[in-house]
Fold:
Amino acid sequence: MKLRVYLNFDKKTVTEPVIWKLAKAFDVITNIRTAEVKADMGLVGLEIEGEADVVDAAVKWLEAQDGVHVEPIEQNVIEG
Amino acid sequence: MSESIVRALKCRECGQEYEIQPTHVCEFCFGPLEVVYDYEKLEGKFTRELIESRPQNMWRYKELLPIDGEPKVGANNGFTPLIRADRLAKVLGVKELYIKNDSVCYPTLSFKDRVVAVALSKAVEFGFTTVACASTGNLAGSVAANAAAAGLESYVFIPEDLEQGKVLGAAIFGTNIIGIRGQYDDVNRLCSEVAGKYGWAFVNVNVRPFYAEGSKSMGYEIMEQLGWKAPKHVVVPMASGSLCTKIDKSIKEFIKLGLIEDNGTAVYGAQATGCSPISKSVKDGTDMIHPVKANTIAKSLAIGNPADGFYANRVIKESGGWCEDVSDEEVIAAMKLLAETEGIFAETAGGVTLGSAIKLIESGKLPRDESIVLCITGNGLKTQEAVLNEVAKPRIINASLKEFDVLAEADGVK
Structure:
């Protein structure tokens, strides 16, 4: 499966190789589709491809990283 | 005339264009998609006279809304009063103040009836029979009501701690209402999965580009009601920031079509301090939005990670506006002030708008001698909990003139 997520990085994590670590820890293909990096935060649009359970585990790992905010692209909805 | 001038869906980031379809994300760069139009097709045809000849609802501007032909849902929605708020203006010390009062929008008393009318009309055009939404309340009620009136099945997903008035205001329409343990952002998370799995029209997911366009009708009405001119300043409450960008778009479209003069309108954003990622970004002078955990009584604005925050930030800066945010106490005080001076009972978001406007006036960001429009987007009857203990309780007496005389005397009534 392919999952599209936005990753927000804070001041601490913006300089960390989080996506590299992800690909090392899980058998997934990471494909950066958009990115903006500044001194105190970063935003990355990332596609994660792999077996469904591996992708799930990879996302859980990302969510557990302090200073990384994970949001499925489909979740990026407007006000309600 | 009702020829559609809609050209395509266009990525706001990379500019890639897509055919009109129920989708909202660019396949290339994941940027949000927006409806774009061939305005030149309207040249000389879309006139003030034509608009004025039509019924007073949001569809008098239908050429600029992304539907084919006539609306399928919500044919009577929109066209709310724009009132000159002289009593409030006097209190605030400003010369020319207006309130665009969507707290009385038909049929569910919030501006969401505008966006939902477009979203559901488009959903019907696409062939959907079930519509759904993630909601902080107003949207749930609007989707439920408009779907009921159109004979569509609906599912609405809300945070479980929502105000009773909003839960009831959706449930009455026989919708499938699902309360989620968590915040609005958690509701969104689930809805993203539901939207991916079920073939429904999620008004703020897969039909979002069409939905969002409905907000422009609020801007069109303001300009027509001001006598075909744009205000110098407009203050807009912000959750995702979408309304802010669409008010700006509506003004630019009217200028492009020659319906109004360019008045250099500045757009201002209002947030609750307990959920103010856009306001903070503008004040900090950055264009990146830090997601926050929302904590405010203004639940309809409690979106911690605003999808259109970046674009709202840009509109505010480019137009020469600014942002402000207010505490829960300031929200309540502003709700009461609006009610007591203008007879308008707005929901908490209205308190955010007025409260922020007061701060903007006091700081000099909003000039006192130019026209200001405040956008009030929802009705206070839905968020009664916020002010329940803030208003005077009835004084109880027997049905006796003597007893009333005592009260009247105490009040100084002659």
Summary: Chain B is about 35% helix and 15% strand. Chain B touches chain A through 46 residues (CB under 8 Å).
